[in-house]
Each structure stands twice: as structure tokens, then as C-alpha cells.
Amino acid sequence: RMADLVMIRTYEQTKIERFAEYSRVPVINGLTNEFHPCQILADIFTFIEHRGPIQGKTVAWVGDGNNMANTWLQAAELLDFKVNVSTPSGYEVDEKIASITGKISPRHFQTYRNPMDACRGADLVTTDVWTSMGYEAENEVRKQAFAAWRVSAAMMAVAQPNALFMHCLPAHRGEEVDADVIDGAQSVVWDEAENRMHVQKALMEFLLLGRLS
Ligand code: NVA
To answer: Is the CB of 129 under 6 A from ligand 1?
Structure first.
């Protein structure tokens, strides 16, 4: 009764949707097993700050077909850019969950077995932890399965020469990304982390005041 907004970080997406159905105030998804929209808003804002419009650009997603990957694909459909996805087998993106329209067009989504191929020509290379929150019991199995899905300097070298690297943090150097990439010149992870705050403030302004700028 006393809140103007509610932000929920939880597990199943159904939980937050059920809450929102009965809420009289806006409900922000602070992360679920399926989606992470606040992070993707910050990531896209960071891309735009550094490189301009994301429309028509290519994002390489290397690693788990998780909440971040799903939300990148939603954004690709909405904003008309492309996501090249490479995951180990068994960890693919579930298109039924990820797609807003039900079927993501090849203009917005392409899968690759080899992560190097996903990175080729990309404007942004991005990844995430191998084990997301709530999946900790799978940690050891995932370490084996994901060993070849570590973003390396060789992957960055086949991307565009001015490609950016992003990670939603916290990162594990030597697992999903090599230290020379996340700490290298193409990495914008600290701008990305700071932008979480600015974009969430803009989201609150939009939800409370209906203002876009
Ligand atoms: N995929 C990660 C994102 C953390 C910000 C998780 O859900 O744990």
C-alpha cells in the first residue's frame, strides 16, 4: 500500500507475472530465471553511448542460453539488431521463451556451434557466468560443458576491430572470459555496471511520470 513501484528479483518468471497481475503499481523485473531486462537496458544504453544506434548491429552471445541470452533476443526483435548465439549443446536458448513474436527471424537470431564463428564480424561480444543464480548444484558439470566457451583474445580478434566486450558481472576470470579481454581496451564492463544505476533511474521516471526524456 505504501509503495509506488515494486522491483522483484526471483526465480520463475511466472511468480513475477502473477504478482504483477494483482499489483496496483508498476512491477519491475529485477531478474528471473528466464529474463533480465534491467541489465539488457543498461547494456544497450552502454553500446549506444560508445558506438551509436544498435539497430543493424551484431551482438555475439557466447555461453549459456540463460536469462541474459533470452533478453538479448527480445531486444533484438524490438530494436532490429542481430544476436549470434553459441552455447554448448544442452544449454541452447529456448526460442519459445526468448521470442516475443513466437518465432525469431534469422535477421535477429543465428546459432553457431563454434563460438569463434558467432564472434566473427560482431560489433559487441558478450557473455555471462557459466552457472547462474539458482543453478549452483550444476556447477561442476557446467565447468566441463562450457570449457570451450571462454571469451578469448582470439575471439575478439575475429570480431569488428572496434568491437566492445561486455559482461553483466560478477565475472570469473579464466572461466567465461580471459583476464586480458575483460581487463583489456575493448572492455566497457565498468561503464556498463555504472549505467545500471542511470538506466534504472530512467526506468522509474518513465514508469512513474510517463516521461521518456
Ligand atoms: N545470468 C546471471 C546474471 C547475473 C546478473 C544470473 O542469473 O545469475
So the answer is: yes
